[in-house]
Design a protein that fits this description.
Order of helices and strands of chain A: HEHHEEH
Oligomer: heterodimer
Distance between the termini of chain B: 90 Å
CATH topology of chain A: Arc Repressor Mutant, subunit A
Number of strands of chain B: 14
Number of domains of chain B: 4
Largest sheet of chain B: 10 strands, mixed
Distance between the termini of chain A: 64 Å
Number of strands of chain A: 3
CATH class of chain A: Mainly Alpha
Largest interface: A-B, 28 and 38 residues
Strand content of chain B: 5-15%
Shape of chain B: elongated
Number of domains of chain A: 1
Chain lengths: 127, 676
């Protein structure tokens, strides 16, 4: 029946990384791990988990929409290539635009983090 | 990839996504197996971690932003399928809509052509027309000389029936006298060759002799679109004119509702109409030219009018009619010249048909509303029968919004064939209506192209219609409940139908009633017109127009009389006669009347309509002669006599008794009146 509405897995969002990561941060992290070399989706998730020492665990339901969104915006380009295991995998690569986005995103994140840090280090709420 | 690319390549994108997710799953499974799980455990674990392959895919598809479009396409497909299952409804709805949309589009195309559309010329908003009918050539020549003072260009034209035959049977064509500046100032480019230019507009013709530019339609009709037509000659009233070019098809002339076959320079008028001792070009009371100006960019119409009035005394003084009474000359000198916008051209048709067209537009609007109500009712009845299906959908997880979108999509599906039927009807109907407007005397030519304006109107109307009739059933789905899917709830819903369709039916009946009343009134007017006493008996009456332009002025009365007598001798013909003015032809001839010894009259009060006839004319037309006698051949040479009608006698004498009274036609000698 065409009108059937897809059952949205609302529950899956609850333990999603999004609840821990501020809005838009995942995009920046993905750009960052792709900066040195192209990776496929699984490797990206692994790399994020390793580098963050298991703090950042990205669900597929979050990772792939993010990858496709970044690709649509022109920050990433994707192509199928043979991977180390010999099987073909879809590798994502940072575009020129992506590099620029990573730079400006990093800069604004650092500015924000520094500002938040300043405020949180206040003693007694007064400078 | 663009949005449209993502929309079109959905299947390929989905396959790619499938592969990608499958690859992820396998890698995870292998990683888990490497960590010590059995293959079965690893697969299960990986699947659980993925959060559900379908859910992931849906989330990725959402990113593409094409979902609504795919849903819509799906709704349309489904709508088409389900409508195919009820062909009766389909036919009824498509016909209702087709009629409604067709009638509206047909009338709109006329309204657009007559009232709205700008002339197909360069910057039509800069064009202004000199008000009040027509002007003499001396006035035009003054205007042309002084035009640079108050405008960026001036043009003049006049319409006239011309004879293109080279001896033998007459070959009538619509002629357009144009000033040399006409095409240039309007910005009309030739479709072929060149158009009339200032060098052509000289008395007796320019360097190339008398020249003519022909209309596209005439070129096709007469010459089969032959490009070798340039340089050939065309006889106009027996005078050879050289064809220099073809006017583009979309330019039908400055008058909306009329077109022309040949355009010839004003300066050559004496070649075509060698009338009398004075040239028509010098006639100071021969009013035949219309005049238009092109404003300068950023010049307002008020500024131009003020500038024009500044030079008005100069123009008037130089062109004073020689044979006018003093009273009229004063008015001639003082009446202020007036300019008005002419972007949409000049039109008799517009004056005549403006209100009827707008009234028609209103009526067909009502027809469309009735058609909408009609289709809405059909759909409501169907929606009631589909209650069960709809509640089943709700039970399966569809939202109310989705159901409404589905029903609206079905309406649009229904509207599409309706629009096609409507377009067909409109194209046929508007041409039919235009053909109906034409009389034997004047053809009505309107450009009715199938252009973006018409298609835009049609599309907008169809969508609005679909929404109008789709809304009622869609709105009702709010009351459908998922629980209805269970049990026999359908029955209880059907009984509640009246709640929505009640007002609809009332509205429909009210609108229909209005239409019936309007139709009855129209019918009444029509029958009154058809049975009206015309003052003559139109049965068995046949009229023939005689072209006497090629006969010398003095020989015309004799020839006409002989033709009338010859016609009367044809077996089966009871009477035959000749008149200058044919009754009901729209032509007229008027002049002032004085009654010796009667009261002083002025203006309209002393005007009367004239006709010149041969003996037997009243018998031919079946008009009763109440008193006195008919003309006979003696009257040609005897004392001048006239026959007047009752209305004339009452007006000028105050009594129906008119025989023996004397009246004076101001331009002629005194004549006693005689008979009715």
């Amino acid at each position: 029946m065409p009108i059937l509405r897809r059952a949205r897995a609302k529950g899956a969002d609850a333990d999603d990384v999004r609840s821990d990561l501020p809005q838009g941060t995942l995009d920046l992290l993905i750009l960052k791990v792709l900066a040195p070399e192209p990776l496929h989706g699984y490797a990206i998730a692994q790399r994020l988990q390793q580098v963050s020492r298991d703090v950042v665990q990205v669900q597929q339901g979050t990772l792939y929409p993010a990858l496709h969104r970044l690709e649509q915006r022109g920050y990433l380009s994707a192509s199928w290539k043979a991977s180390d295991t010999g099987r073909d995998a879809k590798f994502y690569k940072l575009t020129k635009q992506g590099h620029a986005q990573l730079e400006s995103g990093t800069a604004s994140w650092e500015r924000l983090a520094a500002a938040v840090g300043l405020i949180l280090r206040l003693e007694g709420g007064r400078p | 990839m663009t949005w449209f690319g993502r929309f079109r390549r959905r299947t390929a994108l989905d396959r790619d996504l499938d592969r990608e997710l499958q690859d992820h799953l396998e890698r995870r499974t292998q990683a888990l197996m490497a960590a010590g799980l059995t293959p079965a455990q690893a697969r299960r674990q990986a699947a659980i971690e993925s959060g559900g392959a379908e859910q992931v895919k849906e989330a990725v598809r959402d990113v593409r932003g094409t979902r609504w479009a795919h849903d819509f396409a799906q709704d349309v497909r489904y709508g088409a399928r389900s409508l195919r299952k009820s062909p009766g409804l389909l036919v009824a709805a498509v016909l209702s809509m087709g009629l409604g949309i067709g009638a509206n589009t047909a009338i709109f195309s006329l309204v657009d052509a007559v009232l709205l559309r700008a002339l197909p010329v360069r910057a039509p908003q800069e064009l202004v027309v000199l008000e009040n009918d027509s002007f003499t050539n001396p006035i035009w020549e003054e205007m042309r000389r002084l035009a640079p003072a108050f405008s960026s260009g001036a043009l003049a034209w006049s319409e006239e029936r011309l004879d293109l035959s080279n001896g033998g049977e007459t070959d009538p064509a619509s002629g357009l006298w144009v000033s040399g500046s006409f095409f240039e100032t309007l910005g009309v480019q030739p479709a072929l060759g060149r158009l009339i230019d200032p060098a052509d507009d000289r008395r007796g013709g320019g360097q190339d002799g008398p020249t003519v530019a022909i209309s596209h339609a005439f070129w096709q009709r007469r010459f089969g679109g032959d490009p070798a037509v340039i340089g050939r000659t065309l006889a106009i009233s027996g005078v050879p004119f050289t064809i220099v070019g073809v006017v583009p098809a979309r330019f039908l002339g400055p008058s909306v509702g009329r077109s022309f076959d040949v355009a010839i320079p004003i300066g050559t008028v004496d070649l075509v109409k060698p009338g009398g001792p004075q040239s028509q070009l010098d006639g100071r009371s021969t009013w035949w030219l219309s005049v238009m100006f092109r404003l300068r960019t950023d010049q307002s119409i008020d500024a131009a009018t003020a500038a024009l009035r500044g030079v008005q005394p100069q123009i008037r003084e130089a062109t004073l009619p020689t044979d006018w009474p003093a009273e009229m000359l004063t008015r001639y000198l003082n009446e202020p010249l007036e300019l008005s916008p002419a972007a949409t051209g000049m039109s008799e048709a517009r004056r005549h048909y403006r209100e009827p067209l707008l009234a028609l537009m209103g009526i067909v609007g009502l027809v469309l509303l009735v058609a909408c109500a009609n289709v809405a009712n059909l759909l409501l009845a169907r929606a009631a029968a589909r209650q069960h299906e709809l509640s089943a959908r709700l039970a399966l997880g569809a939202s109310h919004g989705r159901l409404i979108r589905q029903l609206i999509a079905e309406s649009l599906v229904l509207a599409l064939p309706g629009a096609v039927v409507g377009l067909t009807l409109a194209l046929w109907g508007s041409r039919f209506l235009v053909a109906q407007l034409a009389t034997s005397e004047s053809a009505v030519a309107l450009a009715l192209p199938l252009d973006w304006r018409l298609l835009g109107f049609l599309t907008g109307l169809s969508i609005a219609t679909a929404l109008a009739f789709g809304l009622a059933p869609a709105w009702r789905t709010r009351r459908v409940d998922a629980s209805d899917a269970v049990g026999h709830a359908t029955h209880s819903r059907v009984t509640r139908r009246g709640a929505v369709s009640g007002p609809l039916v009332v509205g429909q009946v009210a609108l229909s009633l209005v239409l019936v009343v309007v139709a009855a009134l129209l019918g009444r007017t029509f029958s009154a017109l058809a049975t009206r006493d015309l003052g003559f008996d139109p049965d068995d009456l046949h009229t023939v127009g005689i072209e006497l332009r090629r006969t010398a002025m003095e020989a015309r009365p004799e020839l006409a009389t002989r033709l009338g007598e010859a016609a009367a001798r044809i077996p089966g013909v009871r009477h035959g006669a000749v008149s200058v003015v044919e009754p009901m032809s729209g032509m007229g001839w008027n002049g002032p009347i004085t009654v010796p010894g009667g009261p002083q009259r002025s203006g309209r009060d002393r005007m009367s309509m004239f006709n010149a006839i041969t003996p037997g004319w009243f018998a031919t037309y079946g008009t009763r002669v109440i008193a006195g006698r008919d003309f006979d051949r003696r009257d040609d040479r005897g004392a001048p006599v006239a026959i007047v009608n009752e209305a004339f006698a009452r007006h000028f004498f105050g009594t129906p008794a008119a025989v023996g009274r004397r009246v004076v036609m101001e331009t002629g000698p005194g004549r006693p009146s005689c008979g009715r």
